[in-house]
Design brief:
By secondary structure, this protein is of the alpha/beta class. It has nine helices and six strands; from the N terminus they run E-H-H-H-H-H-E-H-E-H-E-H-E-E-H. It has a six-stranded parallel sheet. Helix 6 links the parallel strand 2 and strand 3. Helix 1 crosses helix 4. It starts with a strand and ends with a helix. Bound molecules: 6-O-phosphono-beta-D-glucopyranose and magnesium ion. Magnesium ion binds next to loops. InterPro entries: B-phosphoglucomutase_hydrolase, Beta-PGM, HAD-like_sf, HAD-like_SPP, HAD-SF_hydro_IA, HAD_sf, PGP-like_dom2. It holds the Pfam family Hydrolase. This is Beta-phosphoglucomutase. Belongs to the HAD-like hydrolase superfamily. CbbY/CbbZ/Gph/YieH family.
């Protein structure tokens, strides 16, 4: 029986993947190679450090630690310029409907994200006060598909993992939820997210009756 909900951020609450893409592409272009939208798919749910490792692999570039760290900072500074301009209009369709429904019923909700920029983004889109707990890239040592981020979220909400529902758009995120023994809901392509317990293209497809059913039946 579900008694708490955990939301991933990028690709679930906001479509920041496009800003990550532009920032990584700029760096790739500066280094003299292309970075495509298809390649950007591999970056979803993946830590900033791992993303840069993959990017440099794509470009066939090896770098000393110092240079590597400078590129990480540079990419993030470019990304933050996009974040700076965000507002509530960038919240994905019907996310407020679901968040509002859960808040009205006093169901605790947490954020479970790999991003170190999660708080500023939630602030920008005015959703920070809605969350009872925030667990982000600053709080974890093990990346998804490790369940750490979601287990800390459950702990912070004081709810057993098996009573938590996770909304995720990344394969590694669905695996992390499953590894945490939580109910996983894939947001996006059901074929890609086939390991999820339930699948929806986006929140417009999620009915309040469905959420209700998760909370009332033995899920
Ligand atoms: C995840 C994104 O939510 O956060 C990844 O899906 C991103 O694409 C990761 O690399 C880390 O984000 P940030 O904001 O800390 O660079
Ligand atoms: Mg995501």
């Amino acid at each position: 029986r579900a008694s708490a909900f955990v939301f991933d951020l990028d690709g679930v609450i906001v479509d920041t993947a496009k800003y990550h893409y532009l920032a990584w592409k700029k760096l790739a272009n500066e280094l003299g190679f292309e970075f495509t939208k298809e390649q950007n798919e591999l970056f979803k749910g993946v830590s900033r450090k791992r993303c840069l490792e993959i990017l440099l692999d794509i470009g066939g570039i090896t770098a000393a630690q110092e240079q590597f760290d400078r590129w990480m900072v540079e990419k993030n500074e470019d990304y933050l310029e996009y974040i700076e301009k965000m507002d509530a209009s960038e919240i994905l369709p019907d996310v407020p409907k679901v968040v509002g429904f859960l808040k009205d019923r006093n169901i605790p909700i947490a954020l479970g994200s790999a991003s170190k920029n999660a708080r500023p983004i939630l602030e920008k889109v005015k959703l920070l006060p809605s969350f009872d707990a925030i667990v982000d890239g600053n709080d974890v040592s093990k990346a998804k598909p490790d369940p750490e981020v979601f287990l800390i979220a459950a702990q912070k909400l004081n709810v057993a993992p098996e009573n938590c529902v996770v909304f995720e758009d990344a394969v590694a995120g669905i695996q992390a939820a499953n590894n945490a023994d939580m109910i996983s809901i894939g947001i996006g392509d059901a074929q890609i997210l086939s390991e999820a317990d339930y699948n929806f293209n986006d929140f417009t497809e999620i009915s309040l009756a469905f959420l209700e059913s998760l909370m009332s039946v033995q899920a």
